[in-house]
Design brief:
Oligomer: single chain
Number of strands: 0
Largest sheet: none
Radius of gyration: 12 Å
Shape: globular
Length: about 90
């Protein structure tokens, strides 16, 4: 499950849709619903994602400007990179 979520984030960062709202909802829900399973696989990296990513996702709204989307992506990429480094 951890790898699936990381791939979902990676795909988003590489091929960002025009409206990121749905992505943010799915990701935020996955981090809550699948936390235990993800934690069993990669505890440190899961904690990294669970720390800031839900707040980043909560900042997304329908119809965001391109600048707002780029800021969302920038913040998400930072957390994605931190989680990648925490993988054991």
């Amino acid at each position: 499950m951890f790898k699936k979520i990381m791939n979902y984030i990676k795909e988003f960062l590489e091929n960002t849709p025009e409206d990121i709202y749905e992505f943010s909802i799915v990701l935020e829900d996955a981090l809550v619903d699948d936390y235990d399973e993800m934690y069993k696989e990669q505890p440190n990296a899961t904690d990294v994602l669970a720390d800031e990513v839900p707040y980043i996702c909560a900042s997304a709204e329908p119809g965001m400007t391109q600048e707002e989307i780029e800021e969302f992506k920038r913040k998400l990429k930072i957390e994605y990179d931190k989680a990648t480094k925490a993988i054991v």
